[in-house]
């Protein structure tokens, strides 16, 4: 103990170069795997994307610097604005799933034994391959033989071509997005619920508060930090949506694709189908900025509704 | 402590160098070499494996590893691999992607190999070899080719009392038969009329006497009278209700509609033959006939080419393998397994014999009037525009002439870029 204490006292008086003692070298060695991974897999790709967004990059061969051309073209590209609108709409729909997740999490918390069973059931979509999810939902949404239209027909509701009619595609994806995100959200919210002291419920119960009142006056405020966290994650994931549209529309020559592209899909199409990598990089950078703004906005807004005890 | 780390780093660096050296010293010697060969077809992988095994037998120092990627990932994986130096040594190529790869210097020039190995390029359909030639050099040897025909369901024709299609059919015969075969009560349609370029409107535009893209590649022909006529062939079928709607065909692909016996006719290529042949529900029920005549006979044709990666570490072995892939033995294996219609002239008989229940000869006869699939300019960009501009015409919401004109303008804009 004393040894450690003397060391920590001595350190500030040493030379300012951080990596001077043997201990620091081994510390660097310990963080090296993570740091190298971070630099190679995140920082480097990000920087090269940033550089490419100012270049005209052919499929192969040398890039030429074009300044902000890619960005000015992008802002004048009707496809880009349509994709941005589609992504925004999808994100809003996915956010509607959060109240559902909160209520479900509270209900699951009420279940005594068998709670784990519900958790597993809701978590299954998270660990299922998006390809499989896309294929199953394509079948459910099929206009002619789909399960959804079959169920609707019991209630005398006319079926629609949910994923072949551009008026409905984003909503159809949104429903799947909510379902896919539920598992993760329930885990985070469930953990948040367990951190709420049981004594609060007992005390309020003695004062005559019912279940509903407890939910709104105890559960919701104390869970708000978890809800905020879930909201941040959901928005980022929703703005990056790609796999559903790829599997449900592109891989089957679905003509609704034209009007249903999301930002990331547009990026894929420009960079990998049409070989305009510089333009694709500009889309990626703009998406990053959009996500940053959306996240900053949420942090600004949280002050009015998130309750940190 | 510091010194130890330097020493460790030095040892690691030295080891890396040593392995790098031993990897590079294989040129020309009989050292063991492994080549990778990528494709996108699970169906064809067994035949590719068989070809690789035969090649390995003749070249004991070379091992060939077959890599099958899903179609949805194939091109992005290949592009990233080629740019990053990790592409497979040999891989399947398609005409509409070829130019970008050839122009970018990613493909192994096979012109010398063709000469030294004595490969006679005239054994392949000219339309296919042309699509793999860039600035006078060959960059891929044709693997297979496909032309189009009318796949039709005999059982549905019998049920409706309609005569089977044959080589006398013209456009009107198709329209009439499709109408008669349609039975909404049973959920059966005469034909599938999706927005399909290769199996659909490219053929009818050519049959109407038009081009798809003009020979110098500067403009398309969709807005011309022939272009409009070729598109109308399909919108008329939609308007008459003889086909499932575009939305239905988006939910359930045309080929699945045909396999589910919901449509009686399906214009498409030879490449479906094996899949149909293996489908027990279709046994004895389907056959194939030539495409109908418009002003003239025509079909587009394309084919897969076997190409090599310019950045391969073993170019000599790779050339040897590609020459083998372009030869008779590889063609015969593909033909005998019924995999595809091999490009090598005279090797197609085993393919015909492998599925004797179909009149597959129509696909070979069609070579005589076939036209290469257009691949000018940034082909994957302008070919992707079709649904955006043609959907309204197919749905009857916009006059065909207007949609065709707008489509042409958009395509021409891509063609004239750069």
TrEMBL record, chain B:
Cross-referenced PROSITE patterns: PROKAR_LIPOPROTEIN
Pfam families linked to this entry: SBP_bac_1
UniProt subcellular location: Cell envelope
Keyword Signal: yes
Signal peptide location: 1-20
UniProt family annotation: Belongs to the bacterial solute-binding protein 1 family.
Protein name: Sugar ABC transporter substrate-binding protein
Lineage start: Bacteria, Bacillati, Actinomycetota, Actinomycetes, Streptosporangiales
């Amino acid at each position: 103990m004393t040894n450690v204490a003397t060391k920590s006292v001595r350190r500030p008086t040493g030379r300012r170069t951080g990596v001077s003692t043997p201990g620091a070298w081994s510390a660097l060695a310990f963080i090296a795997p993570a740091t190298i991974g971070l630099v190679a897999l995140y920082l480097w790709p990000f920087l090269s994307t940033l550089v490419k967004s100012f270049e005209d990059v052919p499929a192969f061969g040398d890039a030429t610097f074009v300044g902000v051309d890619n960005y000015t073209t992008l802002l004048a590209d009707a496809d880009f604005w349509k994709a941005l609108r589609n992504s925004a709409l999808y994100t809003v729909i996915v956010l509607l799933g959060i109240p559902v997740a909160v209520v479900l999490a509270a209900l699951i918390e009420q279940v005594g034994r068998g709670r784990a069973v519900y958790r597993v059931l809701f978590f299954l979509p998270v660990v299922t391959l998006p390809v499989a999810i896309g294929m199953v939902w394509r079948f459910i949404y099929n206009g002619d033989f789909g399960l959804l239209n079959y169920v609707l027909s019991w209630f005398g509701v006319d079926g629609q071509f949910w994923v072949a009619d551009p008026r409905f595609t984003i909503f159809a994806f949104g429903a799947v997005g909510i379902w896919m995100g539920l598992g993760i959200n329930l885990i985070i919210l469930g953990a948040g619920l367990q951190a709420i002291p049981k004594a609060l419920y007992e005390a309020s119960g003695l004062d005559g508060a019912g279940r509903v009142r407890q939910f709104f006056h105890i559960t919701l405020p104390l869970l708000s930090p978890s809800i905020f966290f879930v909201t941040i994650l959901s928005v980022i994931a929703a703005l990056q949506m790609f796999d559903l549209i790829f599997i449900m529309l592109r891989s089957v020559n679905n003509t609704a694709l034209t009007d249903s592209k999301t930002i990331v899909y547009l990026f894929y199409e420009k960079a990998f189908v049409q070989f305009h990598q510089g333009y694709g990089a500009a889309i990626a950078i703009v998406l990053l900025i959009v996500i940053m703004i959306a996240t900053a906005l949420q942090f600004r807004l949280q002050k009015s509704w998130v309750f940190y005890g | 402590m510091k010194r130890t780390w330097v020493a460790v780093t030095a040892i690691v660096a030295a080891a890396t160098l040593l392995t790098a050296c031993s990897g590079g010293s294989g040129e020309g010697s009989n050292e063991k070499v492994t080549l990778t060969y990528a494709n996108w077809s699970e169906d064809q992988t067994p035949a590719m494996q068989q070809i690789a095994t035969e090649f390995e037998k003749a070249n004991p120092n070379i091992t060939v590893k077959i890599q099958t990627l899903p179609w949805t990932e194939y091109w992005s994986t290949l592009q990233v691999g080629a740019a990053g130096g990790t592409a497979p040594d040999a891989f399947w190529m398609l005409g509409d992607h070829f130019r970008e790869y050839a122009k970018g210097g990613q493909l192994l020039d096979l012109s010398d190999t063709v000469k030294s190995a004595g490969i006679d390029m005239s054994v392949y359909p000219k339309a296919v070899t042309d699509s793999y030639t860039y600035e006078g050099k060959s960059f891929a040897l044709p693997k297979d080719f496909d032309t189009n025909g009318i796949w039709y369901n005999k059982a549905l024709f019998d049920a409706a009392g309609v005569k089977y299609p044959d080589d006398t059919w013209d456009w009107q015969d198709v329209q009439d038969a499709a109408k008669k075969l349609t039975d909404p009560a049973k959920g059966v349609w005469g034909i599938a009329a999706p927005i399909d370029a290769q199996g659909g409107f490219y053929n009818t535009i050519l049959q109407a006497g038009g081009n798809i893209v003009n020979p110098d590649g500067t403009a398309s022909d969709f807005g011309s009278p022939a272009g409009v006529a070729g598109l109308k062939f399909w919108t008329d079928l939609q308007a008459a209700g003889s086909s499932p709607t575009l939305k239905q065909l988006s939910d359930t692909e045309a080929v699945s509609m045909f396999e589910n016996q919901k449509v009686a006719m399906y214009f498409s290529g030879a490449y479906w033959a094996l899949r149909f042949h293996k489908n027990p529900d279709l046994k004895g029920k389907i056959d194939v006939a030539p495409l109908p005549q418009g002003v003239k006979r025509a079909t587009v044709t394309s084919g897969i080419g076997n190409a090599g990666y310019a950045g391969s570490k073993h170019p000599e072995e790779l050339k040897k393998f590609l020459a083998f892939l372009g030869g008779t033995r590889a063609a015969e294996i593909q033909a005998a397994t019924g995999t595809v219609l091999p490009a090598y002239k005279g090797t197609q008989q085993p393919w015909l014999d492998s599925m004797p229940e179909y009149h597959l000869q129509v696909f070979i006869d069609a070579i005589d009037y076939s036209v290469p699939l257009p691949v000018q300019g940034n082909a994957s960009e302008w070919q992707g525009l079709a649904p955006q501009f043609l959907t309204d015409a197919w749905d009857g919401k916009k006059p065909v002439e207007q949609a065709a004109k707008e489509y042409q303008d958009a395509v021409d804009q891509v063609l004239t870029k750069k």
